[in-house]
Amino acid sequence: QVQLVESGGALVQPGGSLRLSCVASGAVFGITYMAWYRQGPGKQREWVAGITRHGVTAYAEAVKGRFTISRDSAKNTAYLQMISLKPEDTAVYYCNASPYANVWGQGTQVTVSS
Q: What does the pLDDT read at residue 101?
């Protein structure tokens, strides 16, 4: 099993930037894929971006060109660099690691507001 801890969320103005971090511990040797999800107010959790152990990335259309996912295997950490933030990016952001799909961290709050 793995444990996931997200951090880096904050209140930022529209157009601002943030970098989120997700540190994995436990059975990290089994992780093949890491992803970021988010859940906005009154919305269902949605997939945002993912990265394979070989560095192949994919993004939801809503964030493509603004968000960048990366991974430091030596530190067992995944990052989400976010630029040009919009109010609709406001959400609690969670990371997830395959094959431990049922494991979630506590999330980190991102609020985009003037």
A: 85
